[in-house]
Amino acid sequence: MAYIEPAPLKDKENPFEAMMSRFKVASQILGLEEEIYNVLKNPARQVIVSLPVTMDDGTIKVFEGYRVIHSTILGPSKGGIRFDMAVNLDEVKALAAWMTWKCAVVDIPYGGAKGGVACNPREMSAGEIERLMRAYTQAMADVFGPDQDIPAPDMGTGPREMAWLMDQYSRIQGMTTHAVVTGKPLVMGGSLGRTEATGRGVMVTAMAAMEKLKINPYKATCAVQGFGNVGSWAARLLHERGLIVQAVSDLSGAYYNEKGIEIDKAVQYRDNNKGSLEGFAGAEKISNEDLLTLPVDLLVPAATEDVINSTNAPNIKAKLIVEGANGPTSSKADNVINEKGIMVVPDILANAGGVTVSYFEWVQNRLGYKWTADRVNRRSDRIMKDAFNNVYRVSQEYKVPMRIAAYMVAIDKVSKTYKFRGGY
Ligand SMILES: NC(=O)C1=CN([C@@H]2O[C@H](COP(=O)(O)OP(=O)(O)OC[C@H]3O[C@@H](n4cnc5c(N)ncnc54)[C@H](O)[C@@H]3O)[C@@H](O)[C@H]2O)C=CC1
Ligand SMILES: O=C(O)CCC(=O)C(=O)O
């Protein structure tokens, strides 16, 4: 069995509280009314279900599943489904709120939601995962809907799981319902460009930030934590833009080569090695903690929460952090990072390329029409660049870090819409 590195040191911060502490600061700067603050801080709906699943050995195992709708003020709620052992209600609540802010930052007409099941998909067969996903969909059938709540992939899920969700939901409705979920396989209503969209948005915002910091991408070095969907696409696209990706990592550890990792080879190796980089040659094995403190220009955390925390923040040497993951920096680390003058492109901006192309997928499903990859990429690049410039402008105007500026942009939009809608 592959060696699993212990989880990195954490501040043990409750992710919902981490979200709230930034929300509070941004709300204060905006002078948000207390009543509106109270509306926005509370998730609109929280659903917890027990999911009995027959395992391959004939035993029945009960999993706990969650779906949290944080807000539907801007539109139907949108957000991925996570399959991971660490899933719990507070994490899903935080991830759902981040979806609300993220959709507002890139100005797409969605509210925020997130779902998850506490399970270890790496130790489950495809059949067990399929039965779990179908049971989850069955239990959430009254929550999901193309005009209500639209799930998508997140950590531990991908197009295969979205196909099972769409099929199960369609069986319940008695009609094919493509637009109930995004991130589907291309042959069943998926959008060109969705698979790489989150990593592409990371690349676009990283390039925009490097321009502001006057970092020449052709001389820049980079380290990427997490080599799943987001991390591997971000690494590949940054490499294509001239950066030397000196280190990549996953749960098996980190892999470092001063002259640069051959990203295509690493992807190929992972795909032929049950999704793991364990044993990847052509690089020195280091720890995930070491990767975070490498003397690189750009650091892309693209794995999970709290990996940059008050313990390791003083040792971070990167000039720029672009957050592919949701919540990779603890709120306690924010001040340390800011005092060091490191620019952070925050999660709710940097990884919004995924939900942006999910929105395009939903639009295409509703039109019954398919866009070209070029159209998808051009439009999503424009949205990401505009969102970056808008957040950067607010950060300069109010002299606040990019993270607080992004929250300010989001809260301003959601609170104004709330007031216009009225009637509550
Ligand atoms: N898939 C998407 O479109 C989007 C994902 N995200 C966020 O990006 C992050 C990664 O998501 P995906 O790439 O979709 O997941 P994934 O399941 O495809 O990959 C996760 C990767 O992170 C690694 N990993 C997990 N825990 C780790 C740890 N403690 N240290 C080092 N590596 C670790 C895994 O081994 C794997 O390589 C999550 O925070 C997710 O919420 C954000 C926006 C959209
Ligand atoms: O593509 C989507 O709809 C949501 C992706 C997601 O879960 C995220 O941005 O964190």
From TrEMBL:
PANTHER family found in the cross-reference section: GLUTAMATE DEHYDROGENASE, GLUTAMATE DEHYDROGENASE 1, MITOCHONDRIAL
Amino-acid positions noted as binding NAD(+) in the UniProt annotation, renumbered to this chain: 198, 229
Protein name as it appears in the record: Glutamate dehydrogenase
A molecular function GO annotation: nucleotide binding
Domain Glutamate/phenylalanine/leucine/valine/L-tryptophan dehydrogenase C-terminal as annotated: residue spans: 191-422
Family named by the database record: Belongs to the Glu/Leu/Phe/Val dehydrogenases family.
Gene3D superfamilies named among the record's database cross-references: Leucine Dehydrogenase, chain A, domain 1 (3.40.50.10860), NAD(P)-binding Rossmann-like Domain (3.40.50.720)
InterPro entries cross-referenced by the UniProt entry: Aminoacid_DH-like_N_sf, Glu/Leu/Phe/Val/Trp_DH, Glu/Leu/Phe/Val/Trp_DH_C, Glu/Leu/Phe/Val/Trp_DH_dimer, Glu/Leu/Phe/Val_DH_AS, Glu_DH, NAD(P)-bd_dom_sf, NAD_bind_Glu_DH
Listed GO biological process terms: L-glutamate catabolic process
UniProt source species: Pseudochryseolinea flava
Active site residues of this protein: 114
Alphabetical keyword list: NAD, Nucleotide-binding, Oxidoreductase
Keyword Ion transport part of the UniProt annotation: no
Lineage top rank: taxon: Bacteria
Annotated TM spans: none
Residues bound to substrate: 78, 102, 358
PROSITE patterns reported in the protein's UniProt record: GLFV_DEHYDROGENASE
Residues flagged as site, Important for catalysis: 154
